[in-house]
Design goal:
- 18% of the residues lie in helices and 26% in strands.
- The protein has two helices and six strands; from the N terminus they run ββββαββα.
- The model has no long low-confidence stretch (mean pLDDT 94).
- It comes from Streptomyces marokkonensis.
Length: 77
């Protein structure tokens, strides 16, 4: 059994996430999101959906990007 790197739970059905040359082990998606999801640089919410990247900064949506002075950012509908 592997151990979740977030909560420490030893679980027979853990899974690995390979990202940026590192391997992470989690027992549930909640722990994976907690560790892996980027944080909006304006409102500080974890970005679970697509988010918006502007000039190397991550935002939960166009509204937060514009609030930080990023021009020309729009949400897609």
């Amino acid at each position: 059994m592997a151990t979740c790197e977030v909560c420490g739970n030893s679980y027979g059905m853990t899974f690995e996430v390979h990202a940026q040359g590192a391997v992470h082990v989690f027992d549930c998606f909640s722990c994976a999101i907690h560790r892996m999801a980027p944080i909006c640089e304006h409102c500080r919410v974890q970005i679970i959906g697509q988010g918006v990247e502007a000039d190397g900064h991550w935002y939960c949506g166009a509204h937060c990007a514009r609030a930080e002075g990023k021009a020309g950012i729009i949400d897609r509908v």
